[in-house]
Amino acid sequence: MRKIIVAGNWKMNKTNKEAVSFLSELKGLVGGINEVETVIGAPFTALSDAVKEVEGSNVKIAAQNMNPNESGAYTGEISPLMLKELGVEYVILGHSERREYYGENNEFINAKVKAALNHGLKPILCVGEKLEEREAGKTEDVVANHVQGGLDGITAEEMKNVVIAYEPVWAIGTGKTATPEQAELVHNFIRLLLIDLYGKEIGEGVTIQYGGSMKPDNAKELISQKNIDGGLIGGASLEAKSFSEIVKAAL
């Protein structure tokens, strides 16, 4: 059985106090749910208190980004050592907003994935096509490029700690959602690609999340697809009740 992971990506939202208040509420809503891994991607400023707030609960904390270097003259950056010492478990890497707004390429993202694994962090590697790429019939080419580029040099053993998040860029924050059938086609393509790269046992075991306007009212139908193993949630993760409903929909 693959691990079902529902992760919230708060992006540039929530102060430290707001984060702690949210997590206190969330623990009460999903506290008894152990069949689904519940993860919250908080801003750097909230990570320390977020980790403390969820200690002893079934909620895990993710960082939203990371520099691949351990230390050095990288103004404004955060290293894997810093995240690991705080008790962060996951880190979101290669998000389409990082690729689009900050020019991150596969090589840089791959360096981050390797650094995360080397420091005992679990990367959530984001992949996905833009609207014009989908309309041009390039979805599989783009997704394969992101998967292969992001995982270059990653061993089969290391893949046991890697999560893939398929995020069609055209469905992020737009209110548009890939139909369950559209999403499943791409998830199945990613699954077959992973099997080709790492063999059946490892490829079948990798959690592949769907990200792209997943909400309480469409989560169950999406997650019920054979190769959709949870979600990476943006807007619907900003309220504890709506996010908890997505977690429950994954049961």
Automatic annotation (TrEMBL):
Catalyzed reaction equations: D-glyceraldehyde 3-phosphate = dihydroxyacetone phosphate
GO biological process, one term: gluconeogenesis
E.C. number(s) listed in UniProt: 5.3.1.1
Role: Involved in the gluconeogenesis. Catalyzes stereospecifically the conversion of dihydroxyacetone phosphate (DHAP) to D-glyceraldehyde-3-phosphate (G3P).
Pathway annotation: Carbohydrate degradation; glycolysis; D-glyceraldehyde 3-phosphate from glycerone phosphate: step 1/1; Carbohydrate biosynthesis; gluconeogenesis
Quaternary structure and interacting proteins, as annotated: Homodimer.
Keyword Protease annotated: no
Active site: residue positions: 95, 167
One Pfam family from the record: TIM
Keywords carried by this UniProt record: Cytoplasm, Gluconeogenesis, Glycolysis, Isomerase
Molecular-function annotations in GO: triose-phosphate isomerase activity
Record keyword Cytoplasm present: yes
Coiled coil: none
Gene Ontology cellular component annotations, sorted alphabetically: cytosol
Similarity comment: family membership: Belongs to the triosephosphate isomerase family.
Root EC class: isomerase
PROSITE patterns cross-referenced by the UniProt entry: TIM_1 (PS00171), TIM_2 (PS51440)
Amino-acid positions noted as binding substrate in the UniProt annotation, renumbered to this chain: 9-11, 173, 213, 234-235
The protein's name: Triosephosphate isomerase
Highest taxon listed in the record's lineage: Bacteria
Localization of this protein: Cytoplasm
Range of residues in the leader sequence: none
